[in-house]
Amino acid sequence: MALTSSIGVGGQHARKRVEASLTGSGADVAGGGFRILLITGLGVAIFFLGAVLWSVIPDGIGYISDRGSAFFSERSSTRSAEFGIFEGIRGTMWIGIFVVVFSFPTGIAAAIYLEEYAKSNRLTRFIELNIRNLAGVPSVVYGVLGLAIFANRLDGFFPGSADRHLGSTTAAAGATLAILVLPIVIITASEAIRAVPRPLREAGYGVGATKWEVTRHHVLPYAAPGILTGTLLSLARALGEAAPLILVGGVTGRLGPRSGLFELEQLGEQFTALPLQIAELAKQPANSGRWTDATAAAIVALLAVVIIANTVAILLRNHFEKKRG
Amino acid sequence: METQRETMDTVLDEDMTEDVTLIDDEPDTASEPDTPDDLVFELDELNVYYGSFRAVRDVDMQVKSNEITAFIGPSGCGKTTVLRCFNRMNDLIETARVTGNLHYHGVDLYDRRVDPVEVRRRIGMVFQKPNPFPKSIYDNIAYGPRVGGLAKKGSELDEIVETSLRKAALWDEVKDRLKDSALGMSGGQQQRLCIARAIATSPDVVLMDEPCSALDPIATARIEELMQELKDEYSIVIVTHNMQQAARVSDQTAFFSVEVSSESDTRTGILVEFDRTEQIFSNPSDERTENYVTGRFG
Amino acid sequence: MATVSPSPGLDLGDLEGEKGRHRRESAVRYTLTGAAGTSLIISFLIVFALIFEALTFIDGIDLGFLWGDQWAPPFNEYDIKTPVVGSLIVTGIAMLVALPVGLCAAVFLSEYARPGVRKVLKPTLEILAGIPSVVLGFFALRWVTPNITQNIRADAPLFTLISAGIGVGILTIPLIASVSEDALSSVPGSLREASSGLGARKVTTTTRVVVPAAISGLVAAFIIGISRAIGETMVVFLAAGGGGNQAEFTLSPFESGTTMTAAMAASVAPSDRVSEGVALQSLFFLGLLLFFITLVLNMVADRFVRRVRQVY
User: Fold this and answer.
1) What is the pLDDT of residues C103-134, one digit of tens each?
2) How far apart are CA A45 and CA C102, in angstroms?
């Protein structure tokens, strides 16, 4: 201020003009409006998330607390007050096992090959394109594949099923979902491996380590959090799928007599899974009995598994990203 | 693996006496003919291509043992490319191709039967930015000897770790925290760790690619001091952007420059002059060298 | 450890390396190659299985057959335009929901949200992404239909394409939001700074500079969203009446209908199950159709994503 006052009258005018232009010509209407638009859009998304959760959690929890643990240990029934998701849990568990045992190792191995070992030529690029396409194929098409290859072809694969195609068996369902998930595991593992910094690899090679030694001792440990996150997310996805199961011939009514949780013979028998049971429950009429509540309860069970897996994966990723800095 | 160690040991035993004689006879001017045992590397019309692009042209060079040889020159003239040929690090780049001859103690490094992994055990490397493994200090040093089969038992490894850290002038600073993460050290310490890591596999050559460019002047001075100490046991080849550093530290200097081709608009690296350091800096033979070292360009 | 460097009397054998180590390396390489080969085998399997059966279907019927009033395999009716148009309607409605919402969410998260806010909102969207489609099918039937569809048209039936479309849209929001947000985030900060430096307000910078710069990625997000929406089965299965193996051709979203995906699922569903013959093969025909449609869409999207990476 001391400076400007010594400028004189001309300077005072200039100062007023600059001050006026700098303090703006009014409210930023367009900007404000745009911001509101964006927040509205985001709000709609969050609203729907809330609505979905709200439409199932209260009713579902209510039903579960009414039925107690019987809900988880009972089997399917035609009466809504007696319906239990035991068989669904069992089927879903089997599917999870297939995915972990087949897709994870194969997918990660394929990713290691593509990122560390494969030469960068047309064949490699073709394989990578192929995998990206496979990841985008709708799950129902994988169901068709499962039907065509496992269900309809491998007759008599399991003892006592000669009259039936391999078809509606737990093994077929597990295999189908394992194949569905494989491209996704490859892609996420590849990304995690690609993110490993070059200087780390160079340091390994520099002290005379072989390619596998560098991969095993340096690249994989560094990429492990990313790989873990990716595989957890794919598992969650596999457990929530219903369409392929329908195609492979999942049963929605009551299954055979086996009552244990984990019996290998199960693999050769008809199966169901949580998402299938939910689909069937959802089709029941809303007015008779507590079917809607039962559906909500089954959904809560499935959501618990899926959301926990997703949340753990995301938390892991955030934790390791922070640690890396 | 056992046979290999035996071979090395027998060779050492046999030639012990010859080594001693050589040291006595070492010439102190460049005019004396270099006897083959004096040389660690011999380059003969070495060319490096990335795909069809020629990055470095026709390098002829003879690098002497137990000396510090510096590569200087403006950016992009192939210094690092040539350096990385010495330990076959260019193999990691898919499109890289090397023609000409590169002999290491008389053996053709690019012979089909040569295993690059074995080469890198004997020819160590320190990189521009310190890149310790995200492991403990101890494991950083022990890793190379472990995978290279140099030591299996814990006590042998302990000995190697201590010796390497002592030679890198780092032992006193870290001896009480060997199990701490290497990433917790300062930049200068990390680089000295990388030097210790490189010498842990008992190489006879240490390559350094601008090792001080990411460090402050004090850390730089420490490493230059270290290099002089290491010279007794190892042959050192260092790429540096810092002319003064080359003048301070090296015994021989190679000046690289760039040749621009007008038709294809490509820049190819060439070796302009290679001589004793005092010559290069006080009385260079080539005008381009003179222009560079006097700061007229670059 | 040797304290003297190896004598210059080195020979080639010293540099050959250890045989055991070499063998291990080869074994590892073969295993890994095999794993990668599996993925190739699988995609060929899909194509062959589908093509074989689908061709049998096409062989068995004459193409005029594919035009009728309804898609009802148990009654030998294979009007192909019913499921195809159904897919278009559902996908169209889904995009009307998912595209604006997803884009707004992405722009907000990328350009306007404070880091603290972002840290909460992004995972929230990721949770939405993890909700299985059966759940959304149930939601579409039991919440969207009474609360939205029947508010727009009071006489709408219980199963409608529009309810399914909205459900699929909700399902697709997180996908579009995340791909778009990636595209927007990869626009370099220097562009935003240049714009602000010229005196542009934030809304101008965002709409005139950032969004156009990210347009390839945004188009990719759109195409990926379409691909996802077309491939969605359960929402239609539950909420549009696609669960029955019979649907009449309709152009109105306020009617029940089916899509290619739901038709496939329904033809196998136990209630009207057909396990053999033409009906089964129609299933493969639809599957092949779907496979190629999503293949083309994904390859186009891939091109756009590639372009984003190239520019930056």
Assistant:
1) 999 999 988 888 888 888 888 888 888 899 99
2) 8
